[in-house]
Fold:
Amino acid sequence: MRNEYSNFNKLKAKEFGNYFIECIDVDSRITIIAPHGGRIEPGTDTIAKAIACQKFNYYGFISKRGKVNGRKSMHITSTNFDEPKALELVGKSEIVVAIHGCKDEQNGTGYGEHIFVGGRDEALKNELIALLKKANLHVSFLEKFAGKDKKNICNRGSTQAGVQFELTRSFRNDGELYKLFIEIVSDVLSKAEKR
Structure:
């Protein structure tokens, strides 16, 4: 997706009133974020908030507009995402999990109901992948969704290593699949918080 804005200040200057921010701090070591919620990557904020479920901190940037006069949505790439409330909440968290949305077709391949996993937290990522695959969910890695950059919002917690999920549109449209995904991720994070 082409980015309409390179940082939050530029977005705010032109889009004030076209978005809102949800920020719930429950004093957890874990934060779940949806930096492209609302009409940018539909369903991502709903899924992120359900995973957080008052157990973990939650942040959502919610766009109220989609395309207008040919302009794309208010997408700021994850390495440039610098909205102050997000940076503050993420910065004090040990574990950060970002929920994103993507198209079904990637690199000329139709993936259908699929999950792509990235981020720098290899241990947590591998644990999540194993359990998601065990539940017969389609999970894989794509370089474009690697999420390895230290500036990526999911890697800006205190450990500088988080996890990001890219969920295809078909996956986000299937209530049964994303409920299973929410259950698995929430369970893994609940155990991680007790360690």
